[in-house]
Known about the structure:
Low-confidence stretches: none
Structural class: alpha+beta
Order of helices and strands: HHHHHEEEEEEEEHHHHHH
Radius of gyration: 21 Å
Number of domains: 3
CATH class of the largest domain: Mainly Alpha
Number of strands: 8
Mean pLDDT: 89
Strand order of the largest sheet: 1-4-5-8
Number of helices: 11
Amino acid sequence: MKLSFSPADEQFREEVTSWLAANLGGEFEVIRGRGGPGDEHSFVEERKAWERKLAEGGWTCVGWPKQYGGRGASIEQQVIFNEEYARAGGPGRMGHIGETLTGPTLIAFGSEAQKERYLPGIRAGKEFWCQGYSEPSAGSDLANVKTRARLDEANDQWLINGQKVWTSLAHESQYVFVIARTDPDSVAHKGLGFFLLAMDQPGITVRPIEQLTGTSEFNEVFFDDAVCAADDIVGAPGEGWKVAMGLLGFERGVSTLGQQMLFQNEFDEIIRIAKANGAARDPALRQRIADAHVGLRILRFNSMRMLSGGGDDGSLQKEAMIYKLYWSTWHRNLGKLAMDVLGAESEIIAAAPYELTRLQSLYLFTRADTIYGGTNQIQRNIIAERALGMPREPRG
């Protein structure tokens, strides 16, 4: 793992910082530092406009190969971009799912027709994606999905039926990728397909889920004979698990850099408030702030280690398997630190509708960090069984 940057990398850093200084202001001043966890409902249209601005400057999809509209940036340069984006107060990315999950997955597994159709809209910051993985009975246990896909040969299309849940920003997305069963008699990870669907169609219903924060960043999504073109399955029927695991590799790979950018913004806000209200003079809080800083640096270095050994198909080193467990626990603790820095009065709100501050929303949102995306218990099983080669957990 490399921890230093070359002169060419530092020149790239100057290019990033200069562009952000010149463009992240004016009409975009209001979205500095906004759109992070618990705040993703805020300034949606302004953040979409920012995506288009990034694209105009060539700052979307910086790690994509140049042939697909990216910059072909090295891992070191991708780290630099995310560091400087955070330092400048860049808002949470509306194009995160498309840029860091859909795009790399299509580049690795998609057909040329799929790449030509979908990558340009992502690159231009004009088409947004959501993720159709979790279901009411298939959260951490993704292989338990019940959503079905039936090939309608007469009309050259797939018909998708089922339900997805916890679908972030489904109400703001033009497309969704969906894991569904192509073989109704299959079980576990066999007989799955990975499908690309347009959200704006009669067969898809989006129903917001009100969160503890009072906002609705994620949704239930219902599929009732939703249409997917026959050639919009990624890979062959039955290969959905392979594609899905490749995508999760990207989620634990370059995608982590954008996530850490949001964490850095939150941490910086906590430090600012601690200095302003005197909380930083409390030795116990000061030690917790220092611990949070150390944890964030560990996240960064582990990400660089992961990415240094990653493959183009989303495969990662075994060390990558600790990432979800580590960041979710760290971020949950950051939410508690935020409330303690704010003081006891931050725990009192007069009445609904609640006007939560960003850090209050952060605290409430982070209560779920150790549950969604695979609970901490599931993550420990994954580390034990897949990384350390220990015996599988007994199953009934």
